[in-house]
Specification:
The complex is a heterohexamer, with one copy of chain A (62 residues), two copies of chain B (202 residues), two copies of chain C (222 residues) and one copy of chain D (251 residues). With 202 residues, chain B is α/β, with parallel strands linked by helices. Chain B is built from six helices and nine strands; from the N terminus they run βββαββαβαααβαββ. In chain D, α3 packs across α6. The chains are: A mainly alpha (62), B alpha/beta (202), C mainly alpha (222), D mainly alpha (251). The complex binds protoporphyrin IX containing FE, adenosine-5'-triphosphate (ATP) (2 copies) and magnesium ion (2 copies).
């Protein structure tokens, strides 16, 4: 069922390895980096908003 | 005539005011006061319909203000003079009137310019005028203005003492003819006629 | 309605005359950009003849675009735009007037000078006629679409270059049909098809653009 | 009447926020499942293409990315229309959350296309109608993002961006057809997308990968929109409750 | 002396970062203009390869030029320029700082993206390297010469387009040597001669331009 | 210290003034008066060396003013605020000091901003500030300003009453420390200390 004879064949992609893996590699990279950036962004936003909120409530309490 | 109900203004993250309301009738002047940044300009821009309020409603003659009829009754004068530096005072006045769909004859315009003390400078491009003279060109519109509602944002800025008195007289005349006006200023100015109501922000 | 439109056109034309520089410089920009190419590419006549329609049209796009930032910016800065928005008639009419005035000042002169530049590139008489017509028909669309971009970027810092980012991609159909008309004529195929498409683009954008621009201007004034 | 009510209810950030929060893990999971299945079919099982050799396997990314880049723009324009018509706050946020992903998809389409073109046509790039349209689409995405970034006030940015999206969506078909026509008028095709009759496994692999891209885009847009919501609505009670309560634990 | 220059650079770069749009859009303008040409001219790879150096350089000229009007205009409008002219050090130093900052924001990015665009035009690897170097060497001269034009047209209405009128003719040597370097490489002649001429232009204009601009600024402030 | 001799000013075709001269010593304030368009701004721009006079001479400490030393002693505040809309008030102050070759620590700057009533807005970009708040940012420079010669063109414009009083105090302090100042304004302002000399144009 599996089309490839060996792992090396798979990597070589019949001579098109550079092009195929270049495509898949960048796609994988983007699909990994983008969520990481989004999650990080979210965390820092939440931290900042919390800080602001605390500062605000402290001010109004005074 | 002009009613505001429960207005709320949020700029950026700051709530400048909320629950603000007033009624203004013919012959009355609303004198907006407040320290720098209190939201006076923002309130004026709501009243002319350029800044949608966060909450609340503004009515003119009982109708919401987003209509051509309201704008046909309105005369607004902002921080900025709305004059073209390349045109002469006379051309500026005439062009402004045409664009606002008003009738203004050349003689009337020259007359208005004389009243604001720009006689002899009708033919000088506005870019050569001093700060105060530019303001006077903008104010010349008011001389022949027949619309009932005037909204003036710091009209006295850059004017010398004589011009301040003159403008106060013009506003009084408007009120006496049954007009309404809303105005802000940080200077102490005495409006001799009409009912002056004060509103303090912030 | 026509009173307002003509009042706007009258004022804008008067301002343009007063500034003088305006009309002349849009034109000279066009001329200079077109003349830069032979310098960058080399003088072979065959090559240049092939390039001519494309280069002329790209230069026309750029010249129109360069004058766009000031379409509303002056009125915005000095407060006139507020007054226009507060006048008792639809803002769309005012914009229509401004678009027409813009075309008269920046599009029409291009069409008039284009044949001269075409001669420099050794175009045939037929091609010159079609070129002039194409620019005449296409530039109003450029002014219209440009007005939307100018309104959207109004008051933003770096507006001029942001504007080009928004507007140039939308100009592409005009470029293609415009250059296509001349190319087709040169190839002996007749440029009528392209010209009528250009006319269609122009009508569509003149009907649609003023109202979109007016909506964008209201947003900018908030 | 009831429908309207519902529409507004779900378009309100306060209800949408938790809903999005519960949906995200599902979309992530689906995306991974579809992705693994698609890769397995496409990379391990599908046979060699007799014309293009193994190089054709780029199709499993190229086509889904191209599709997504076009769909996302349409969806953004849809949200923009809703936003301008009904003045819902959610629409602008959704459009802004989708834009970066759409731009990345357009970029991926160009990138994979270029990597495919080099071995197939001997050039990284040719000025073919499809390629050119895709490039213009990328410009439109960037224009939208630059415009909304240049306007600081979120509400104004939404309105201006929405207007731009609608103008853009009217123009996309015009651009597409003009580019297409331009190209065919000029040259006989030195460029030929020799469409090999696709093996069934290839087709399935491609469809599975497309599903994977769909799920991925939805998940990432929902994640982004949740952050945007917190930022924009930080003065409302529900965000304050959210921040003081459970925020920080989940993502 | 270096303190002042670096203070100016620091401030201008911070402003550019704050505006974000700035850097990105000069770049994208470049990209878009370059992409317009094939649309106007047609997709034949052979033809395009011949055009590439000229088109890239003309686009670089235009992209630099588009960002020029704002070089001093913002400072002029908000009164900062007056303050700079009143500071107790020569205005020429301030201008030097502004020119450097301008190049960092508008010239450098062009050099970085140029190879990618070169690929679209199917240039060879050699030609790509020379192209990048040429743009790297030539753009500072564009910023320097441009500063003089920006200072001369400061505060004039229609300045943007008047500016292009003044500056583009002065850019022509840069264009010729810049495009020439790439052309020579493509033709297998080696581009070193052209590149060293470019470098000479850049040094001359960086030494001279700030002081000429400073003089022009003083006139504009009167 | 600051002397003007026989100055003449011609703008366009108009001779605004001629034969104008004055001497100003340490601790003195020159209060320029005159109606709109009298030439006050033009005179100030001559005094700072940006507008060459048609005739006459201006000297600072006995030397003609076109020199770096003069500019090192000068602090000018014009119609325009010279602040960057994208930067925050704090960044604006610091950048201005660096460009003017002055030492200003961040604490000092924050302190100055608090004094002008912008506490809590240090981190908001200036474009969001109101008209008066922008003016206050520009005026914050004066709080730590040690240079002897201040030239102020309508500094009170757009300020509210509290800010006007504050600024009058700042100017008094400067005069008491032996500074000089030249100022125009159309508002009535009371400067509590120092010798005030008036000069009326036109
Ligand atoms: C930078 C270069 C490329 C770009 C921007 C690009 C863009 C696109 C786009 C937008 C689509 C979707 C169009 C549609 O569904 O109608 C697509 C589909 C496709 N592309 Fe590309 N492409 C590029 C290069 C290539 C190359 C080099 C090949 C193969 C030799 C290729 C083969 C295909 C195939 C087979 C499809 C699917 C066709 C279909 O479903 O109708 N593409 N491409
Ligand atoms: N995006 C924003 N973020 C935060 N605050 C903002 C924003 N936009 C405006 N503001 C604030 O709103 C207020 C603007 O008020 P406005 O211009 O109406 O004041 P004003 O009463 O007219 O003041 P002045 O007397 O100085 O003219 C200022 O306090 C300003 O800081
Ligand atoms: N090119 C010119 N042609 C004719 N008159 C000119 C020209 N340039 C300036 N003026 C005149 O010079 C005067 C400018 O004066 P200036 O700006 O110094 O006035 P000012 O006293 O500061 O007035 P304000 O109180 O209004 O600020 C004005 O009367 C103006 O009309
Ligand atoms: Mg105000
Ligand atoms: Mg003055």
């Amino acid at each position: 069922m599996i089309h490839w004879n060996s792992f090396a064949d798979f990597i070589a992609m019949g001579g098109y390895g550079f092009y195929v893996w270049g495509s898949f590699g960048l796609t994988a990279l983007i699909m990994i980096v983008e969520p990481i950036v989004v999650v990080r962004n979210r965390k820092s936003t939440i931290a900042r908003l919390k800080r602001q909120l605390r500062a605000e409530t402290r001010n109004t309490a005074e | 005539m002009l009613e505001a109900d429960n207005l709320e203004c949020v700029r950026g993250e700051r709530r400048l005011f909320a629950g603000l309301g007033f009624r203004l009738e013919a012959g009355e002047l609303l004198y907006l006061q407040g320290r720098n940044g209190a939201g006076k300009t923002s309130l004026l821009r709501m009243l002319i319909g350029l800044l949608p309020p966060e909450a609340g409603e503004i009515r003119w003659k009982g109708q919401p203000i987003r209509s051509d009829e309201f704008r046909a009754d309105l005369c607004y004068l902002g921080h900025l003079n709305a004059i073209k530096e390349e045109l002469t005072p006379l051309e500026n006045l005439l062009a402004a009137a045409r664009l606002a769909d008003e009738e203004l004859s050349e003689d009337d315009a020259i007359d208005a310019l004389e009243q604001v003390g720009l006689a002899g400078r009708e033919d000088l491009a506005c870019k050569y005028l001093s700060q105060g003279q530019k303001r006077r060109v903008a104010l010349a519109r008011l001389v022949k203005e027949k619309r009932p509602l005037w909204i003036l944002d710091e009209p006295f800025v850059a004017l010398d003492v004589a011009a301040v008195d003159w403008l106060a007289g013009i506003i009084s005349g408007h009120l006496q003819r049954g007009g309404l006006a809303v105005m802000t200023t940080h200077q102490l100015v005495n409006i001799p006629a009409g009912t002056v109501r004060e509103l303090r922000l912030g | 309605m026509f009173k307002i439109i003509s009042a706007v056109i009258g004022r804008d034309l008067k301002l343009a005359m007063r500034r003088q520089a305006d009309i002349v410089s849009a034109l000279f920009f066009f001329v200079i950009v077109v003349s830069l190419f032979p310098l960058g590419i080399g003088p072979e006549p065959d090559l240049l003849r092939k390039l001519a329609p494309g280069v002329l049209w790209v230069a026309a796009l750029l010249a129109t675009m360069l004058s766009l930032p000031r379409l509303f910016a002056d009125d915005h800065r000095d407060g006139t735009l507020e007054q226009l928005a507060l006048a008792p008639h639809p803002l769309g009419l005012v914009v229509t007037g401004k678009v027409i005035a813009h075309w008269l000042v920046s599009g029409l002169p291009l069409a008039l000078i284009a044949p001269v530049l075409g001669i420099q590139f050794d175009l045939s008489a037929d091609a010159l006629v079609v070129l002039t017509f194409a620019i005449l028909l296409g530039t109003p669309a450029l002014s219209g679409i440009g007005a939307i971009g100018a309104a959207l970027t109004l008051g933003l810092r770096g507006g001029g270059i942001l504007l080009s980012l928004l507007v140039l991609p939308l100009y592409i159909p005009v470029l293609i049909f415009g250059a296509g008309a001349v190319d087709a004529t040169v190839a002996g195929l007749g440029g009528e098809g392209h010209l009528s498409l250009l006319a269609a683009l122009t009508f569509a954008s003149l009907g649609f653009a003023p109202w979109a621009s007016a909506a964008a201007l209201k947003i900018a004034l908030e | 009447m009831k429908d309207r009510f519902n529409l507004y209810r779900f378009a309100s950030p306060a209800t949408f926020y938790p809903l999005a929060g519960t949906l995200i893990p599902w979309f992530v999971a689906l995306s991974v499942v579809f992705g693994l299945a698609g890769l397995w079919l496409g990379m391990l099982v599908a046979p060699t293409d007799f014309q293009q050799g193994e190089g054709y396997r780029i199709i499993f990314i190229h086509v889904p990315a191209s599709w997504m880049s076009m769909f996302i723009y349409l969806i953004m324009a849809g949200w923009a229309a809703i936003g301008l018509a009904f003045n819902t706050r959610l629409s602008g946020m959704m459009a802004q959350a989708l834009a970066p992903t759409g731009a990345l998809m357009a970029f991926l389409s160009l990138w994979t296309g270029a990597l495919w073109g080099k071995p197939m046509w001997g050039a990284w790039w040719v000025w073919d109608a499809r390629l050119t349209s895709e490039l213009i689409l990328l410009f439109l995405y960037i224009g939208y993002m630059a415009l909304t970034a240049a306007i600081d006030d979120a509400k104004r940015a939404d309105k201006a961006g929405g207007l731009l999206l609608l103008v853009g969506v009217v123009n996309i078909p015009i651009i597409y057809f003009s580019v297409k026509w331009w190209n065919t008028l000029h040259q006989g095709s030195s460029v030929n997308l020799t469409k090999s009759s696709m093996a069934e496994t290839m087709l399935w692999g491609m469809l599975l990968m497309a599903m994977c891209f769909w799920m991925y885009s939805i998940a990432i847009a929902l994640m982004r929109v949740r952050t945007i919501m917190l930022e924009r609505e930080r003065h409302t009670d529900w965000v304050k409750a959210e921040l003081l309560g459970k925020a920080g634990e989940g993502k």
